[in-house]
Amino acid sequence: xxxxxxxxxxxxxxxxxxxxxxxxxxxxxxxxxxxxxxxxxxxxxxxxxxxxxxxxxxxxxxxxxxxxxxxxxxxxxxx
Length: 79
What we know:
The protein is mainly alpha-helical. The chain has one domain (3-14, 28-73). It contains four helices and no strands. Helix 1 packs antiparallel against helix 2. The longest helix has 15 residues, at 36-50.
């Protein structure tokens, strides 16, 4: 499984959405599934999946799938 697939799968599991919904344009609070509670679950799942520890600023800034990729890239995760 490559990192893009892993990212998609993490969003699917954390938010309970279909893989087709996980696009770079998907943003926080644009779907009912991605609320503040789901956001914290998503952060925990991303940290587990990619074996990173995100700092508070990154957690707050992670407002979309595209932004998640940018943030993970700072931790040497390649997409």
